[in-house]
Amino acid sequence: MSGWEDPSSTAMTILDPRDGAVVGTVESASRTEVHEAVRGARAACETWRRTAPAERGALLTRAAEAVEEHSHDLAVLNLRETGRPVEEAEGGIAAAAATLRQYAELGPLHRGHRLLGDYGAVDYSIAEPYGVAALFTPWNDPVAVAAGLIGAALVTGNTVLHKPSERCPHLGRLLGEILGPVFPEGVMTTVLGGPEVGELLAAHRGIGVVAHVGSTASGRDISQSAVVTGAHVIRENGGKDPLLVDAGVDPSWAASQAALGAFANSGQICTSVERIYVHREVADAFLSELAARARQLNQTRAMAPLVDRRLRRTVAAQVDAAIQGGARRLEGGRVPPGPGAHYPATVLADCTPTMEVMVEETFGPVAPVMVVDSFDDGLAAAATGRYGLASTVLTPDLTHAQRAAAELPVGTVKVNAVFGGAPGGSAQPRGDSGSGFGYGPELLDEFTRVKVVHWAEGMGG
Question: What are the residue boundaries of the Aldehyde dehydrogenase domain, all occurrences included (predicted)?
Answer without folding.
Answer: 4-453
